[in-house]
Hints:
Low-confidence stretches: 1-28, 30-37
Number of helices: 16
Strand content: 15-25%
Mean pLDDT: 92
Amino acid sequence: MIAVVSAVAFSGVCEAQAGGGSSQPAGGQPSILDRLNAMIGGGKSAWSDAQIDTMQKLRDKAMASDYAYEELRHLTDNIGPRLSGSPQTQKAVEWVADEMRKLGAEVTLEKAKVPHWVRGAEAAELTEWPGQAAGTKQKIVLTALGGSVATPADGITAEVVVVNDWKTLRALPAGAVKGKILLFNHPFDKELAATGHGLDAYGQSVVYRGAGPIAAATAGAAAVLVRSAGGGDYRSPHTGMTAYAPGVAKIPAAAVTAEDAELLGTLAHEGRVTMHLTLTPQTLPDADSYNVIADWKGTAHPEQVVIVSGHLDSWDLGTGAIDDGAGVAVSMAALELMKEMGVRPKRTVRMIAWMSEEEGSEGAAQYLKDHAGEMANHAGAIESDLGADHPTGIFYAGKPELGQTLRPVAQVLEAIGAGSLVSAPETGEDIAGLTEKGVPSFAPIQDSRFYFNYHHTAADTFDKIDKKYLNENAAIMTVLAYALADE
């Protein structure tokens, strides 16, 4: 390829010298040389050499920094899980705000009403099954789904019916699950996740978590169980938000481990299986909480903003390191790195720690209301919410020419293996509304092969964080934010 490019370049120079200095064909279309130069060099850059140099320095500074790693350590180890409406969430809001004020950012806490659901006790055991030894029971490991209603305080005992999917449920005779506990035993596709398509595998499983209670209640079930939507088994259940529908009974809902889902499937195939299930969650009145907004003010157009963001809330089983403390930490790092290097871009870089993404994205919805008249001043929005594994580049949603425009930025990130640019319809749950309103939006392309092993489980803890990978994500966030803000 190098030889071909060199030959074409030499030919172009000769043609230019012979024809008066132009390599443009008579028809006005770019020559092969022009197209190759655009491909290799990114075409006419929106950034000067000095700005590219600043991007490179921000990248290198991010890779050598301890900031994101130590901030994330404190958020997860010292403050802990951050379910919406909890005391830990309020502590996290105050702590992030204080950390941003220390940098000299202009900090605002923007109020949002959020769900306040409390998990309570959760237990299950088999009371009858084929081959049972007299006087014995079998423990089933499960966890309530977010938003679930409770069983009676002393639980329920009912027969378990197991189906693999919607089609299997529809094929059952009328009344087959009435008054029973229905289990959706739909496996998470580990092979699909192992090829880098973790989000696709998750999407195939999570529909049962979301709509399972509606389908089960419609069929007359007394409670619903779903096989955990994740790849890490080790008898660790994956929680997450579920849904109810108006006019359909609300029934208790829980996720069981992959191993116990398999056990129930096997035993139910052999004969009658009954379970005693106890879930005691509470849904309290909505609570006041906050999006944390920290503005690193621009020098020329401070009213125009580029958002860097992650969501501050997390599920309560673990400490929310990969989902999504990491996204918050690398967003905080973008401001810290600019401060350390004395960088003030033309536009404002706005760090947002979103609230209540896990339970309905109420913080993001409130932001759209509060800033409805300012959409034209949003030059871009970035969200990191797929963990902290190695990133390979940038997802972008917006006009098709965005990819070509960003080539010089991608070339800066090639040094850390993150030079890919991939068009996507959306880039993050919290910034989806901004995308719909025409704001260009972005996200790191992260390795998703292992993310769903820990996602929404008790294993989402700080030890899963690789400092080098976390810094690579901080580098993407910072370089891209600076590029958009100083273009």
